[in-house]
Amino acid sequence: xxxxxxxGRVVEQRGLWFDEFEEGTRYLHRxxxxxxxADNVLFSTLTMNHQALHLDAAWSANQPFGQRLxxxxxxxxxxxxxxxxxxxxxxIVANLGFTDVNFPHPLYHGDTLYGETIVVGKRLSKSRxxxxxxxxxxxxxxxxxxxxxxxxxxxxxxxxDAQPEAPLVDExxxxxxx
Length: 178
What we know:
22% helix
């Protein structure tokens, strides 16, 4: 494949087609993400989670962990987000749901979060030809390798030969009606 002017090879980042997922495969998502106080405050306030464990340093200092904790929903969203480019970018039909969500150890300001995903199952959809359901186990670890988050997620993914053709240019933009 060559680029628009025919001078070089073009590679477009995408996730895996249903056919490419293999049960038992572990994907490491790198680089990691060092989380900050700003991340925690912004995410918590944007999502209207005013839990003092995330926002109040003085109060949190007197709680069992002795400091503020990263918002667990931020942690979950980040480990799932880390997997997108490698696993589902452009190949996902829908996120079907999460089960078995756990936060066995806190994540703190200044920790570095690393994500990994294990393909734990896959099957063709019974009701949607050309699509399949893939079950993924997302794991987040801190810089010391301690598990800070785990979740099982089901996604609906296109089979390679069944995905719809996407237009290269949005027709509304091309004809000036956007």
